[in-house]
Write a structure and sequence with these properties.
Largest interface: A-B, 31 and 27 residues
CATH architecture of the largest domain in chain A: Roll
CATH class of the largest domain in chain B: Alpha Beta
Helix content of chain A: 25-40%
Number of helices of chain A: 5
Strand order of the largest sheet of chain A: 2-1-5-3-4
Largest sheet of chain B: 5 strands, antiparallel
Order of helices and strands of chain A: EEHEEEHHHH
CATH topology of the largest domain in chain B: Uridine Diphospho-n-acetylenolpyruvylglucosamine Reductase, domain 3
Bound molecules: flavin-adenine dinucleotide, FE2/S2 (inorganic) cluster
Shape of chain A: globular
CATH topology of the largest domain in chain A: Ubiquitin-like (UB roll)
CATH architecture of the largest domain in chain B: 2-Layer Sandwich
Distance between the termini of chain B: 55 Å
Helix content of chain B: 25-40%
Strand content of chain B: 15-25%
Oligomer: heterodimer
Order of helices and strands of chain B: EHEHEEEHHHHHEEHEEEEEEEHHH
Radius of gyration of chain A: 15 Å
Structural class of chain A: alpha+beta
Strand content of chain A: 15-25%
Radius of gyration of chain B: 19 Å
């Protein structure tokens, strides 16, 4: 079954025909070609597919594209302003919080949701916000540091 | 890729009931269990009926001496709701440990109960609060106490076309205090190896209190622990009454041997430990154990 949907992704409006079972993650990656959002586990457990849906972090592997109809989505591609990286992206580079980079888009979006809500989080807040995000490379410390030190 | 199905998002309850009356139809709330189950092949609905536009399933408000909690209320909304502080705070404590921020943003309390996992975190809290399940379906509206709603692992009293619309939760008397404690394998995101909800309803003076206990992940469904409750009812909780209650609690549960998260021996031992932790937290200095 097909559905006509209209979503705003990174401030750009898209209209598309999607089938019922297409996930939001597949829509972003395969239909729109926005491959910054990663597919890790596909079961809600790793956080790699995290995007902001109407400003809040969600797992795009557990949401149908048709469920997102009429809503606004922010992916990692929408964080930078032209050539200027988002302060969180700068901080991740500065602190060496990226190794293979697979978890990074999800980490950045969860962190953005946190600092939008709470500009000066402490370590406990950061750990809470990233509680559902796995990183197999960094050992997390550099990611925590980057978020705590990001320029405001 | 998920196996193909047809998605509907009805605007009215009667439409939703009609769609769900067909064989092969599944209700969709937050999707954090359903989509995982479709991907793994555990469920393969032909029709998925999204409930999110049904006004009857939303909202938190007072109705007489009960609080109405719509089935579509998310864990995140429960954590932030003023209604779930104080005597009803036990539910927000339970909702706050479900998954992670992203899961709590989508996961609903109705989905948590309808999925009927023995370890569902909001179930012990709702059992201790004596919540009633409100159901809408082809035959109209009916309601039942939560224990009757649970038939077994993954099985509920919902018939074809029936929808859980929400819960009526009687407000415990002012001064009642509850807590939900659980044990997981890791500090981060994990399902409960065992969970215990305790609610203490004060009486007059030291003795006349009521203690309600409910456990998750220790039996085919979440369960009230009535025998242990009786031993603590109207008692000064001291080392002796606590030891007896722990012993009864250990004997009254029947954890399955094949759990991925914890052995039956561990669960029996932990049930007692969590009970002691909960009572010392709730009774404070009154507690002499
Ligand atoms: C990564 C991850 C971590 C998790 N961690 C936890 C945890 O710590 N604790 C915990 O308890 N659970 C956890 N869960 C499980 C899940 O998130 C919860 O059970 C959640 O509350 C389910 O709600 P939902 O709205 O997403 O349900 P859905 O997936 O939409 O539905 C679940 C089931 O209930 C049915 N259903 C839903 N609503 C209704 C209704 N109103 N009427 C009739 N039928 C209905 C659906 O048809 C389906 O069978 C986790 C899941 C994931 C993916
Ligand atoms: S891919 Fe969605 S959480 Fe892992
Ligand atoms: S940088 Fe490789 S998974 Fe996090």
């Amino acid at each position: 079954m097909k559905h006509q949907i209209r979503v705003k992704v990174n401030a750009e409006t898209h209209e598309a025909q999607v089938s019922s079972e297409l996930t939001l993650l597949e829509f972003l990656r395969d239909t729109l070609g926005l491959t910054g959002t990663k597919m890790g586990c596909g079961n809600g457990e790793c956080g790699a597919c995290t995007v902001l849906l109407s400003g809040a972090p969600v797992r795009s592997c557990l949401i149908l594209a048709v469920e997102a109809d009429g809503q606004e989505i922010l992916t990692v591609e929408g964080l930078a302003r032209g050539d200027r990286l988002h302060p969180l992206q700068e901080a991740f580079l500065e602190k060496g919080a990226v190794q293979c980079g697979f978890c990074t888009p999800g980490m950045l979006l969860a962190a953005k949701a946190l600092v939008d809500r709470q500009p000066d989080p402490d370590l406990k807040d950061v750990k809470e916000a990233l509680g559902g995000h796995l990183c197999r490379c960094t050992g997390y410390e550099s990611i925590f540091e980057a978020i705590l030190a990001h320029p405001r | 890729m998920l196996r193909p199905f047809d998605y509907y998002r009805p605007r009215t309850l009667s439409e939703a009931i009609k769609l769900l009356s067909e064989t092969g139809a599944a209700a969709l709330a937050g999707g954090t269990d359903l989509l995982v189950n479709i991907r793994s092949g555990k469920e393969s609905p032909q029709v998925v009926v999204d409930l999110k536009d049904l006004p009857e399933l939303h909202g938190i408000h007072l109705e007489g001496d009960k609080v109405w909690l719509g089935a579509l209320t998310t864990m995140g909304e429960i954590v932030n709701a003023a209604a779930f502080r104080g005597p009803l705070g036990i539910l927000s404590e339970a909702a706050s440990v479900v998954g992670c921020c992203e899961i709590r943003r989508r996961a609903t309390v109705g989905g948590n109960i309808c999925n009927a996992s023995p370890g569902a975190d909001t179930a012990p809290a709702l059992l201790a609060l004596e919540a009633e399940a409100a159901i809408r379906g082809p035959g109209g509206a009916r309601s039942m106490p939560l224990p009757a709603f649970y038939l077994g692992p993954g099985r509920t009293a919902l018939g074809p076309g029936e929808i859980l619309s929400g819960f009526f939760i009687p407000r415990p008397p002012e001064g009642s205090r509850g807590t939900y404690l659980r044990r997981t394998r890791v500090k981060g995101m994990d399902l409960a190896g065992i969970g215990l909800a305790a609610l203490v309803i004060p009486g007059h003076g030291k003795r006349n209190h009521e203690v309600r206990l409910a456990l998750g992940a220790v039996a085919p469904t979440p369960v009230r622990a009535r025998e242990a409750e009786i031993l603590l009812q109207d008692q000064v909780v001291d080392a002796l009454s606590l030891t007896r209650a722990k012993e009864v609690l250990r004997r009254s549960i029947s954890p399955r041997a094949t759990s991925l998260r914890a052995s039956p021996e561990y669960k029996r031992e932990m049930a007692g430990v969590l009970l002691e932790m909960a009572l010392s937290k709730l009774l404070g200095e009154e507690y002499a154990g």
